Amino acid sequence: MNEFGTRYRIGIFGTSHGPCVGARIDGCPAGSRISEALIQAELDRRSPGKGAISTSRMERDKLEIISGLRKGKATGGPIVGLVRNVDTDSSAYDAFLRVPRPGHADYPATVKYGGHHDHRGGGQFSGRMTAGLVIGGAIARQVLEKKGVSLLAQTVQIGKVVLKKDVPFSIADRVVRASAVGCADRATAEQMKQEIIRAHEERDSVGGVIKCSVIGLPVGVGEPFFGSIESLLSAMMFSIPGVKGIEFGSGFKCASMRGSAHNDQYIIRNGKTVTKTNNAGGILGGLSNGMPVEFRIAFKPTSSIARPQMSVDIVNRKPVELEIKGRHDPCIVPRAVPVVENSAAAVILDLMLQGGFA
Question: Strand 9-14 relative to strand 3-4: parallel, antiparallel, unpaired?
Fold first, then answer.
């Protein structure tokens, strides 16, 4: 399935080396003011070609809105947005139908589709497809911001380099957008950059962790069990290529805590009911509790590396040494920051529409 959401739905289309990639968005409230320039700004954050820490593929990712907006407002009909694929080189990919790349979807996709899928550049399994998620999410966040809801994703780990301090939301938002790696601390960001460069020089790759925060969410957003904030955010996040883990609030640390330490005790602050801690990550019973919704996403190292690796010729059933050529990110985390941020916005707006909050 290439669609996600209930009241606010995003359907993605295209392939990595096809004519274009994009999204069809259903459910944006009619009359909502939507700036194409703000959507473009989010696409620019995700776009490739940013020096040694990114792929050398150069895509301008210029937004084209085909329908759904008129005079800067949503019409109530489907919003269709796309970006053209320009800088494509598919010459290296035919071989992978026969000799699948380790860490990629080549082998299961070949079996599932009988070799008929568009395998160029990873086809529909490519990170290039996340441009559609950014388009849909960048529209959603403009609706959310008018409701006082803001989102911020930031890189908190790349390889062995970890951000060890919390930076206030207002400061982090500004610094993250100016950072090549999406980190809220400049000194740590430089260390992260060097970590990526070292992996690239060693013909290898590196993974990392992105933290995302949602602030200003009213109490009670979400639905019990299958429609919980955790359920839907997790489903969306695992739709992003390369994601291998997610945790909310204290996450896996809660397994070593006692209830007396993990429970977030209620207090009154500035006339509002809040909690002293936020181990729950702003979610109780699948519903927002008024605290910031906080979660962390783990990304694996980029699968395409220049080092020789072992695979098999699936026709002759013989072992083959494979050396992948092409243009690939040595670390996908920096470009995934706006993907996480905007994808989360789409989920939150969907839940707010379901609950009558938007």
Answer: antiparallel
